[in-house]
Specification:
alpha/beta; Udp-n-acetylmuramoylalanyl-d-glutamate--2,6- Diaminopimelate Ligase, Chain: A, domain 1; UDP N-Acetylglucosamine Acyltransferase, domain 1; eleven-stranded parallel sheet; 27% strand
Length: 349
């Protein structure tokens, strides 16, 4: 159960109109099929509208296009939103707010040179090294480590067991989930006489405001320049961000993606699960890479890009794989036939 709010007050806080009982009490959010009579739900996609109108929820967030069909719904209270999913997310924040704590747990190890805002919380067994600054209402979960000369700005939340190494800057209102490692050395090596030698990484990691970083994601520091993650970037779990990578504002990266060193990703890009970026390449703004694609060259224009072979049954896949190896010889033979028949150069439409 979350906080309690009445329908009229919630509508006012969301800035959207409502239909129904202004004094109806809402105490939490729920999925359509698990809702109670005081739950708030939403429907965005028309494919789920039948489930929505049969839900036991007390209040339903709908789009204006759904208004003609609301008389079929079991629910009698509605919030009308241009983007129901977004309104639901805001409502969920209001109904289930983060409970802020403040102070320093007695088991925490905090350098006397650290600057901790009195409204911040430093949890059990946290280690904070020299010359660290922690901003207003920052929440640091148990067993986190924050290295020397690092800065964590206002209202950022570090979940338990986050590791932030030395000289890292984390902006305001960020969320970094458990197991993430920020500021470790990258995979920078040089070969000498057949042996690999580690290259010192002297740059920083600089993270902007409103950035989310998922569980067990790693962000490596730069070698000389900085690794930079700009404002509003959202990164899923188990993502590798290598040294000197730059990620533009409001880009989203799904789980198990890997960005090799010195990649530059533009603003408003989408990298689906398992995408790989080779090093030293650049993606333009608003590029969408579909799942499991491997990017080996820079992309200069916005758009949707894919690579790889889609899933098929094994028998058909094996046939296609064998034929794929024959493409070069088939193309050569086709070229000979075209020349023999007197065809000119064929251009693709």
């Amino acid at each position: 159960m979350g906080s309690i709010v009445i329908l009229a007050d919630l509508a006012a806080k969301l800035g959207i109109p409502f239909l129904g009982d202004a004094s109806f009490v809402i105490d939490g959010v729920a999925a359509l099929d698990l809702a109670e009579q005081t739950s708030l739900c939403y429907v965005q996609d028309s494919a789920y509208f039948d489930s929505a109108i049969s839900s036991r929820c007390g209040v339903l967030i709908v789009a204006s296009k759904h208004l003609p069909y609301l008389d079929k719904a079991k629910c009698s209270n509605f919030l009308i939103a241009e983007h129901p999913h977004f309104a639901f997310a805001k409502a969920a924040d209001l109904l289930h707010p983060v409970k802020l704590r403040q102070g320093i747990h007695p088991t925490a190890v905090v350098s006397p040179d650290a600057n901790i805002h009195p409204s911040a919380w430093v949890g059990p067994y946290v280690v904070i090294e020299d010359n660290v600054s922690i901003g207003r209402q920052v929440q640091i979960g148990a067993h986190c480590h924050i290295g020397s000369m690092s800065h964590v700005l206002d209202e950022t939340q570090l979940f338990p067991r986050v590791t932030v190494l030395h000289n890292v800057h984390i902006g305001k209102r960020c969320r970094i989930l458990s197991g993430a490692v920020i500021g470790s050395d990258g995979f920078g090596l040089v070969q000498e006489q057949g042996a690999w030698v580690h290259v010192p990484h002297l740059g920083r990691v600089v993270i902007g405001d409103d950035v989310d970083i998922g569980a067990n994601t790693t962000v490596d520091r730069g070698t000389l320049a900085d690794t930079r993650i700009m404002d509003g970037v959202k990164i899923d779990n188990l993502v590798q961000i290598a040294h000197n990578v730059i990620i533009g504002r409001h880009t989203a990266i799904a789980g198990c993606a890997g960005l090799a060193g010195s990649s530059i990703v533009g603003e408003y890009c989408l990298l689906a699960g398992g995408v790989g970026l080779a090093g030293h390449l650049e993606l333009a703004d608003k590029v969408h890479i579909t799942g499991m694609s491997m990017v080996t060259n820079s992309i200069q224009q916005s758009g949707v890009y894919s690579s790889g072979t889609p899933l098929d049954d094994n028998k058909q896949w094996r046939r296609n794989a064998a034929r794929f190896k024959m493409l070069d010889s088939m193309a050569r033979r086709l070229g000979l036939i075209e020349r023999h028949l007197g065809f000119g150069k064929i251009t693709e439409e």
